[in-house]
């Protein structure tokens, strides 16, 4: 009897062991290898950077009077847009995850880059709409906040400036190599330069609020220039370099739209022609008739644009007649083309030039910054558009700087000099910098954009329909606070422009 009981216990034990093993195996099978709860921050960083620094495409070029379409009435070209997108919040969720993982593994450099990326995305979001969810945003998982309140635009700007200050200090205190970094290959010092230069850009964006005592714009700006590293050459450019590999190619590569119905805006071409600006040869193709006549690439008369505010059918007729310039083929045929610069030396030098002209810095050499900016942009294209390098070499830059419409010293007034600075921001921005020059025109009035019958350039976008469906009270409160009840319109004036 004792032996039987022992055999029974052994048998039951074996059954239990097999059951536990089976459950363990099933649990292993149930784990999804593509859904991991923990991911090292450097693995997240690569894709986050690639998305953030990507080419912004045609949309800002239509609105900023650089290209026109012949395939129909483009709402951006004719200033007829309405609702904007909150898509950046999807990118910000990944940034939030990276920062959480950085905290988990005690890697503060990734937290610092997270603060920069948050500032970058929230900056673009608040310029697009005005007030936005900021301090309570992205807290669905951590705090069950699914309908976040909107922060005032002023508080958003204060918040992102604070985040950038924190990012700079964290990087200074933790000079660790940054793995997974496709922008600066882990160089912390260059990241600090980009972070601080972006602080300068944001402060200048707020020039209309320069007298707000809470912002302290002038002294903040001067303090950064005097005491912090900023972008000092093209080698410091915050840019994404492209490679001829699937997933790493230039953002507009193989775009069929470019090769068929996207032409260069006549006002953009005219400004380049008037200044004998050789960047025209890099941005645009000669007209069909000019090619047939044998006109050289560097013949300014070989280029002609389309009317951005006329009937698009007239531009179709002009294109059919061979009298309009397509966008340069390199933008859609070259898989590597040129790096996309989010913020670089040329723009930073123009930021410094404008700040000096506005009296924000104790300096009188705004002309030096202005010349540095132009030479740097010519040098950028000499390196990255090699086929056209002879048109933008150092001698070409010196000749260009003597053109009466370009020459800084030929301007007598501060207003005229600022106008020239803004024109150079504009002329250097073809497929570079996204929406920057459009917002600069809203801020300064330069360069003036040709207006269609629908009215002047809109100052914002209407909030997404999804906000009315899922966050109605908060979006309604934000609209009423900013513009008056029910005034969610594209020409309502947000705080930063008042």
How would you explain this protein's 3D organization?
This protein is an all-alpha fold and 498 residues long. Among the domains are: 85-229 and 457-498, Serine Threonine Protein Phosphatase 5, Tetratricopeptide repeat (Alpha Horseshoe), CATH 1.25.40; 256-333, no CATH class. 52% of the residues lie in helices and 3% in strands. It is globular, with a radius of gyration of 27 Å.
> Helical element count?
22
**Parts with pLDDT < 50 across at least 5 consecutive residues:** 1-35
Helicity, as a percent range: 40-55%
Could you state the order of secondary-structure elements as H and E?
HHHEHHHHHHEHEHHHHHEHHHHHHH
Q: Which descriptor suits the 3D outline?
A: globular
CATH architecture of one domain: Alpha Horseshoe
Please give the alpha-carbon distance between the first and last residues.
Answer: 96 Å
CATH topology of one domain: the name is Serine Threonine Protein Phosphatase 5, Tetratricopeptide repeat
- What is the average per-residue confidence, as pLDDT, rounded to a whole number? 92
User: Can you tell me the CATH class of one domain?
Assistant: Mainly Alpha
Main-sheet strand order equals: 1-3
Number of strands: 4
Rg (CA only): 27 Å
Largest sheet: 2 strands, antiparallel
The percentage of residues in β strands lies in under 5%
Structural class: mainly alpha
């Amino acid at each position: 009897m004792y032996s039987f009981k022992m055999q029974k216990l052994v048998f039951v034990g074996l059954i239990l062991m097999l059951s536990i093993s089976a459950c363990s195996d099933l649990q292993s099978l149930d784990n999804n290898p593509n859904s991991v709860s923990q991911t090292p921050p450097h693995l997240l960083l690569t894709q986050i950077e690639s998305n953030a620094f990507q080419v912004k495409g045609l949309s800002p070029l239509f609105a900023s009077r650089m290209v026109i379409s012949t395939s129909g009435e483009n709402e951006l070209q004719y200033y007829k847009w309405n609702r904007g997108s909150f898509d950046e919040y999807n990118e910000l969720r990944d940034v939030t995850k990276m920062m959480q993982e950085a905290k988990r593994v005690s890697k503060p450099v990734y937290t610092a880059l997270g603060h920069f990326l948050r500032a970058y995305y929230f900056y673009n979001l608040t310029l697009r709409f005005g007030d936005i969810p900021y301090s309570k945003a992205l807290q669905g998982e951590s705090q069950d906040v699914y309908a976040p309140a909107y922060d005032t635009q002023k508080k958003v700007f204060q918040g992102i400036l604070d985040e950038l200050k924190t990012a700079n200090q964290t990087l200074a205190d933790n000079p660790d190599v940054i793995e997974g970094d496709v922008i600066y290959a882990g160089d912390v010092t260059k990241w600090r330069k980009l972070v601080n230069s972006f602080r300068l850009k944001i402060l200048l964006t707020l020039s209309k609020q320069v007298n707000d005592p809470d912002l302290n714009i002038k002294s903040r700006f001067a303090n950064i220039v005097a005491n912090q590293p900023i972008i000092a050459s093209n080698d410091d450019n915050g840019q994404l370099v492209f490679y001829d590999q699937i997933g790493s190619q230039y953002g507009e590569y193989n775009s069929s739209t470019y090769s068929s119905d996207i032409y260069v805006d006549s006002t953009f071409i005219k400004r380049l022609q008037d200044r004998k600006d050789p960047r025209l040869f890099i941005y645009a193709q000669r007209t069909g008739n000019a090619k047939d006549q044998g006109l050289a690439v560097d013949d300014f008369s070989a280029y002609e644009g389309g009317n951005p505010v006329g009937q698009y059918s007239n531009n179709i007729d002009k294109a059919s007649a061979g009298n309009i310039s397509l966008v340069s083929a390199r933008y859609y045929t070259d898989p590597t083309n040129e790096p996309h610069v989010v913020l670089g030396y040329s723009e930073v030098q123009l930021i410094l030039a404008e700040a000096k002209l506005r009296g924000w810095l104790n300096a009188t050499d705004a002309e030096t910054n202005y010349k540095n900016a132009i030479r740097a942009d010519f040098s950028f294209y000499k390196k990255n558009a090699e086929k056209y390098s002879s048109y933008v070499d150092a001698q070409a830059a010196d000749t260009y700087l003597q053109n009466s419409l370009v020459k800084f010293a030929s301007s007598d007034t501060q207003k005229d000099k600022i106008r020239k600075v803004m024109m150079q921001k504009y002329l250097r921005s073809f497929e570079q910098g996204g929406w920057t020059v459009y917002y600069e025109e809203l801020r300064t009035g330069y360069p003036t954009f040709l207006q269609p019958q629908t009215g002047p350039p809109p100052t914002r976008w209407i909030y997404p329909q999804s906000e009315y469906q899922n966050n109605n009270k908060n979006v309604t409160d934000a609209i009423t606070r900013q513009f008056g009840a029910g005034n969610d319109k594209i020409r309502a004036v947000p705080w930063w422009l008042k």
